[in-house]
UniProtKB/TrEMBL annotation, chains A, B, C, D:
UniProt keyword annotation of DNA-binding present: yes
PROSITE patterns for this protein: HTH_TETR_2 (PS50977)
InterPro entries: Homeodomain-like_sf, HTH-type_TetR-like_transc_reg, HTH_TetR
DNA-binding segment(s): 39-58
DNA-binding recorded as keyword: yes
Protein's name in the database: Helix-turn-helix domain-containing protein
Pfam family, one: TetR_N
SUPFAM superfamilies in UniProt: Homeodomain-like (SSF46689)
Key words of the record: DNA-binding
Organism: [Mycobacterium] crassicus
Amino acid sequence: MANTVQPKRRKRVDGELSRERILDAASEIAAERGYEGTSIALVSAKCDLPASSIYWHFKNKDDLIAAVIERSFASWLRAWEVPGDGTARERVQGLAMQIAKALLDSPDFIRLGLMLALERRPIEARARAMFIQARTQTAVALTETLSELTPGLTETQMRQLVTYAIAGADGLFIANEVDDQAVDLIEMFNMHANALYSTAVRLLSENAGQ
Amino acid sequence: MANTVQPKRRKRVDGELSRERILDAASEIAAERGYEGTSIALVSAKCDLPASSIYWHFKNKDDLIAAVIERSFASWLRAWEVPGDGTARERVQGLAMQIAKALLDSPDFIRLGLMLALERRPIEARARAMFIQARTQTAVALTETLSELTPGLTETQMRQLVTYAIAGADGLFIANEVDDQAVDLIEMFNMHANALYSTAVRLLSENAGQ
Amino acid sequence: MANTVQPKRRKRVDGELSRERILDAASEIAAERGYEGTSIALVSAKCDLPASSIYWHFKNKDDLIAAVIERSFASWLRAWEVPGDGTARERVQGLAMQIAKALLDSPDFIRLGLMLALERRPIEARARAMFIQARTQTAVALTETLSELTPGLTETQMRQLVTYAIAGADGLFIANEVDDQAVDLIEMFNMHANALYSTAVRLLSENAGQ
Amino acid sequence: MANTVQPKRRKRVDGELSRERILDAASEIAAERGYEGTSIALVSAKCDLPASSIYWHFKNKDDLIAAVIERSFASWLRAWEVPGDGTARERVQGLAMQIAKALLDSPDFIRLGLMLALERRPIEARARAMFIQARTQTAVALTETLSELTPGLTETQMRQLVTYAIAGADGLFIANEVDDQAVDLIEMFNMHANALYSTAVRLLSENAGQ
DNA sequence: TATGAATGAGACTTCATTCAT
DNA sequence: AATGAATGAAGTCTCATTCAT
C-alpha cells in the first residue's frame, strides 16, 4: 500500500506557489493598465487570494510592481542571444530579429517598463528604478555585442549607436502597440537593423576621413 | 465709442480664463502621472478652483484629459514646419531638427500621449482615441513631406518609412526622458535623419534593382 | 401669500451644522476610547454622515481630534472664573470648587487630553500639541490668580505651586474616573485647596525665616 | 553527575526567554502608545519573533497586555518600602521620595495603567481590571503605612488622605510626562509630602476641636 | 458662472487571529 | 516550542461625481 501521494509540507510549498500566482496576476494587469491602474483588489480577484495575503508576500504595492519588473526582465534577458555567424550586416539583422521576437513573445516587460519610465510622479517608485536599471543592463550587453560587430567606433559614437538602437526598438514596439495591424514588426526591425548598420558605416567613414 | 468698460463680456472672459487655468494644471499633472494618476482633487488644488468648478467646464475626467490632448496637439503641430531649401538630405535633417525642438519645447503632449497609447484598459478612453487621431494626422503630414523629399518609393515603402521615422522620434524622446543627461536629443535626431535618408536611398536602389 | 418659510441657503448653513455634529460625535467617542480607539467609522455612524463627508470638514483624523480638543478647551475655560470676595483661604477654596464643577460638567476635555498627554507615539499628534498648549494657558491663568491671592512667593515657588495645583486636580479627576463611587470630588477638591493654602503659607514663612 | 549538558531543560528555558522578550517589547510599545496603539505586528517586529509565536505564549492581545501590567506592577511594588526612623513628617517625606524614585525608575507601569484607567471602552478589558486591582493593593499598603504614621484619623479621613496621596502622585507623574524639563519630580514629591502631612495635622486638630 | 457640501465606491494597508506543519 | 501562510474585518483616506444654491 505504498502511498505515493505526499500532501506533506503542502503549506510550506504553497507559499512560493502563491507568490507566483500573485506575480502572474499582477504582471498581466500591470501590463494592461500601468502602475496606478493596477489595484490590489484587481490582483486579488485575478489570483484568487485575499488582498491581505498579497501583503504577506509583498511589503506594499510598489514592492509588488518592482517584483513584477524584476521577474519579467529576467525572462526577457533569457529570450535573446547573439547570432554567431554570417557577415556583420547579417549578424546585426539576426540580433534585431531576436529582439523583435522577444518583444512579441513577452511584451509585458517593455510595455509596463515604458509606462513607468514615462511617469514622473514626485516620489520615485522603486519599480521605476528597477526598470531603468534593467534597461541599463540591456545597454551594456548591447554595447558589447555591437562593439564586436562594428569595431573602430569611438566610445561616444558607440554610446550614441546603442542609444539609437534601443530608441528604435522602443519606438517600433510602441508603433506596434498603437496599431498592431498596420505594422509588421519583424519587417520593421529588419529596416532598423539596416539603418543601424548604415549608420555605423557612415560613422566609421567619418572617422577615416578625419 | 470711448466706453472702455465692458462688463458684458466680463463673465465670458473669466470663464475662458478659468478653463485655461484648469487645462494648464491638468496638463502638468497628466504629463507627470498619466491618466489614472491625474485626480480631479490634484488638478483642483493646482489651479486653485474647487472640484465642482472643473465639472462645470468639463463633462468628466475623460473629457478633461481629452481636452488636454487636443490643446497640446494643436500647439505641437504649430511648432514644426517643413524647411524649404537645400538638398534632400539637408531638408530631412532640417525637418528632424524642427521635430526635436518641438519635443523639447512641449514634451507634455508626447509624454502623456505615449502613456495613453501604452495603456490597454478595457474601456477605451476618449483621451486615448484623441491622441491616436492626432498621431495619424502627424503621419499624414509626414508622408506628404517625405514623398516630396524622396520621391519614387512605393506606397508600402513610404508607410514603412514614416512608421520608422515616428518610431525613432518616440524612442529618442523616451531615451531623453529616462536619462536626459546622457542624451543629446538634437544630435540624436540628426543621426535619425541620416538613417532615414540612408534607408530611403537603399529602398530606392532596391526598386531600381528589381 | 407671503411665504414665511425660507428653505433657501439651507445647504450653506448645514455645513456648519454638519461640522458641529461631527465634532459632537467625535468628542463623545474620543473621550471614551482615546485617540486610537476613535475610528472614523465609529464617528460616521454616530453623527450619521458618511465617512467621506467627515473628510470634507477635516483634513484627517488628527485634525479632527485636534478640533475636538480645541472646542472642548474653549468651553472648559468658559466654565470657571475667580471668586471675588472672602479671605484668601476662602477664595482659594472657591476657585477649587469652580474647577471641580467644571471637571464634572465637561470631563471630556480632561479625559481625552490626559490620554493624549500620556501617549508618546513617535510622530507627535497635532491633537496632543493642542492639549499641551491649552494646559499651558490654564497654568498662566492660574498663576495670575494665585499671585493675587498669595502674594510674596518667588517666581520658582509660584511655578511649583501652580504645578502642584494642576497635578492635584488631574490626579483627583483620575481618582474619580477610576472609581467614581468612592470619591466625593467636591470634598476632595476642598482638601486640595486647603493643602495648597497651607503650602503657600509654609513657603511664605520659609521666605520670612531666611 | 558531571554532565554539564542539559538538553532536557533547553526548550523550557528558550520558551521562558521568548516569553520575556515578548513582554519586554510589549511593555515598551504599550507604554508609548496605549492599548489600541499596541499592535501584535509592532510587538512582533520589536522582539523579532513571528506574530504566531506571540499567540503561542499568550491567549490574545488582552492577555498579553494584562501580563505586561502584572509584571510591571510586581517590579513597581518591589521598588518602594517604608522608611523606619525619624519624625512622622520625615518618614512621610521619606516614603514620598521612595515613590518618586520608583516612578522615575519604571514609569511604564503607571503610564500604561493611567491610560487604561482613563479609557472607557464598552467592553472592559482584562488589562484595565488588572491595573485597577494593582492600584487597590497600593492603596491598602499606603493606608497601613499612613495609619501608623498619623494615628487618630477616622476611617473616612484616612481613605480621603490616601486618595489624595495617590492623586497627587498621579498628577505629578503626568506633569513630569507632559514637560519633564520644567518639573523637578523629587522636589515636587517633597512638597506633596509636606502638604499631606499638613492635611493630616489639620484633620486631627479638627477631630480634637469637635 | 460658479461652488460648498455631500456621497458611495473603492483605494491601500493593517488588524487580531487561526491553523497546518 | 514554535512558525509560515493565510484571512475576514476593519483601518484611514481619496476617488469621480452630483446637486442645491
